[in-house]
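Lay summary. Proteins are chains of building blocks that fold into shapes, and those shapes determine what they do. In this project we predict the shape from the chain. Here is one chain we studied, written as its sequence of building blocks.
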Amino acid sequence: MFADLAWPSIEASLDAQGFAKLPPILAPGECESIAALYQNDARFRSRIDMARFRFGVGEYKYFAAPLPAIVQTLREDLYARLAPIANRWSRGDAYPATLDGFLRRCHAAGQTRPTPLLLSYSAGGYNCLHQDIYGELAFPLQVVFVLSRLGADYTGGEFLLVEQRPRAQSRGHAIAVEQGAAVVFATRERPVTGTRGTYRVVMRHGVSTLTTGARMSLGIIFHDAK
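And here is the predicted shape, written in a compact code that computers can read:
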């Protein structure tokens, strides 16, 4: 599924900006099938009303185990592609080559609940800037797929990324994403090489306000939660 992507360019974009856009990978029918799962509460372990917790306006649901087959495949295949980048960023060998190996470490640390999720917004909805950290262990990259059609199902609702560099004002990115396409981005921080060596830039992400319609997305987070 991901073998034909331009991974050197993706990696270069992650290094330079903390994110990289992926072209449409999921077909429209696959997007519709994944989005339709939202109505089946048996597939999910919890539902979050974002307004209740002042996270934004909208809601999201975390999948229960076992994950739907397509979500499991995306999670495994993307992890295998991103683990070498994660290890280079960490300057070590902290992340096993396979998702199964990494999840064994998560589970040993008490992080046993799956974290892939579906996020649902309607007109006026948004997601405040945040980080998806659920315990001591966190994979440094994650992925979001947009399942709805920009300009047809909704307007507005850009994916937002804000980076905070030391002793500098924040810089933001507003990223429009086609149906079936995705963004890979830094979960918490990314390394930047400066004149005095490497330092860390803090990253937060969210979704801008939907102007019209409804938008659904699939979040692929690799670390499990406590």
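What the prediction tells us: Residues 7-220 form a domain with the Jelly Rolls fold (CATH 2.60.120.620).
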